[in-house]
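#structure-requests
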Amino acid sequence: MEPLNLYQSAILIPILGILAGIIIPISVFVWLYYDAKNKQKTILEISKNLDDPSKVEELLKIFEERKKEPIDFRRSGVITLFTGAGFCFFGVFFLGSIMKAVGALISLIGIGTVIAGYLYPNTGKELTDAVEEYEKK
């Protein structure tokens, strides 16, 4: 078999890039579907053998994957802010004004997220304090 010539390899690379952009998301969705399906089957099989309803509730808590705490906007805002600063500095030293603009945009998004974290309390204690302060008025 002959190796690919330059023209054939130049066409093959974009085709593989397009296919990868399609195949990767589809495979992730299929993987997540089967993962969730197997967890549900496991819970059903275990719950059939349990007599005590409190043990079933305990089992469901084990398989619960949701986070108990809400998202901390201040933390994610600081991360976004410094990511934008990194892009901006990268633009200053290497790629020019486009990267500086992208970095500035990302930094401003980070600043807005930090401000939102302070305007909207999100932890249980902060929410309780906010409700108590409102009730005092």
